């Protein structure tokens, strides 16, 4: 029970970062390997503002969203669009975007190290509470609830608004979306920026109960990728289910075996997915 | 074509022989830099063998390198095995591991492969630390040999030359031809009857083999080994950077990339020790935006232009 509760609470923020990556890869077709660094940037903002100005991390989340949106939009517009235009096919774009986002991730880590070289450790809402008979802390619950609100509104936006439908159409097929009059480059930029914003907000949330440091981003990139592949590229529902699975399995391994093995357990899931359902949990097999 | 292939090999052989004299001429400081450079030349050459033709970015070098270093250290420290035996075992283990990774990921699209190798070194490091702490008792591992820096350098040179020769040989073989077709268009490759998965897996296994051997050979340099230190994800990125900087389209591209990068890196890490990560990031961006085919690709472009201008 303890494992289920804390696994589920952890899954909330995992789902956010994976949703962000899924928007970027599924719609904008950019394999963003700097995703984890976007998350850590959000965490650093929350930490820095709390330590230096006593700003509540929950307020920081609201501020991080628009800033990260603009930042990611600029990155897409000025760094990635030239690559999209240059590439002759999807494979070429994948290689180029992987290398370019590696560059960005190292660059961002470099900047973050110069701001704060140590751990982003601070205490916020760390009172213990009891949920369904198992103990947890208030910050985990608050982070989870906010993640549900953000993820929920993203889901509604994608399914209920005109722009949301356009974004999903691009994710199904760029050519077909272009033919029915959707501005594909604009939607891709929007999806990329939004993805970055959602991931960074997830980072601010996770920093309230999880101690990060500047170089930990790649681990989160890895986990987000595993979730996206497990859930299926472009599939919001699948991403959420996959995030819950990863959150619970990781928590189980951390409590029952060793906390040092969480990445290994994520890899184990990844391997199973690759061997048995490479198209994702809910994905349909393409020929 | 065939004649120019042999000419290339002859030039490489001359360079290798010349490189063999480095420890006799250089002082200790330069020799130590040369060892590092030679280590990366060996790693990058074997990286280019696989990633050059297939365009699959492998980040597994750190993991294979770590297996080499760690197995040599455990075997010598805990089981009194000889260095040579352990180096052989580690190469075997890494080759098998590469085969398994390849079998799991290389049948699918390239992205899965990159993602899988991205966290590989870190994951193996976690597993090894866990085993070490819980079952073997956590103590440092010592690699005590009577190798000097010069011996290590020569061994690395032999490995680099072997990797180059193998790459040259594969390039001229049916396998190399198959790989170039895969790299250009995998669907076409499948339709003309190439077993694409097997070809990729076999080539990836050679990368594992050389990675582990380099890790094993360099282990005596550090004498004291910890899993945290040998399974380094940074190493994988360094290999990718240097190989791409030189140019992955040619087997000798890495040599052109490694030597300037090692020198600049030495300077940057001395002068700006806190900005090294940012520097790596900038070089990656430089490669993607300015030198997509590496220095070699740019030189060839210039050469073509000059030739056309002469007409």
From TrEMBL, chain A:
It comes from Actibacterium pelagium. Belongs to the binding-protein-dependent transport system permease family. LivHM subfamily. Its main location: membrane. It comes from the Bacteria. InterPro entries: ABC_transp_permease (IPR001851), BCAA_transport_permease (IPR052157). It is a multi-pass membrane protein. It is found in: Cell membrane. GO terms for molecular function: transmembrane transporter activity. GO terms for biological process: amino acid transport. It holds the Pfam family BPD_transp_2. Keywords: Amino-acid transport, Cell membrane, Membrane, Transmembrane, Transmembrane helix, Transport. The chain crosses the membrane at residues 6-23, 30-51, 57-76, 97-121, 141-158, 188-212, 260-276. The keyword Transmembrane helix applies. GO terms for cellular component: plasma membrane. This is Branched-chain amino acid ABC transporter permease.
UniProtKB/TrEMBL annotation, chain B:
This is Branched-chain amino acid ABC transporter permease. One of its GO terms (molecular function) is branched-chain amino acid transmembrane transporter activity. Its main location: membrane. The keyword Transmembrane applies. GO terms for cellular component: plasma membrane. It is a multi-pass membrane protein. It comes from Actibacterium pelagium. The chain crosses the membrane at residues 9-26, 32-50, 57-77, 83-104, 111-131, 151-170, 201-219, 239-265, 277-295. Keywords: Cell membrane, Membrane, Transmembrane, Transmembrane helix. InterPro entries: ABC_transp_permease (IPR001851), LivM-like (IPR043428). The lineage of its organism: Bacteria, Pseudomonadati, Pseudomonadota, Alphaproteobacteria, Rhodobacterales. PANTHER family: HIGH-AFFINITY BRANCHED-CHAIN AMINO ACID TRANSPORT PROTEIN BRAE, HIGH-AFFINITY BRANCHED-CHAIN AMINO ACID TRANSPORT SYSTEM PERMEASE. CDD domains: TM_PBP1_LivM_like (cd06581). It is found in: Cell membrane.
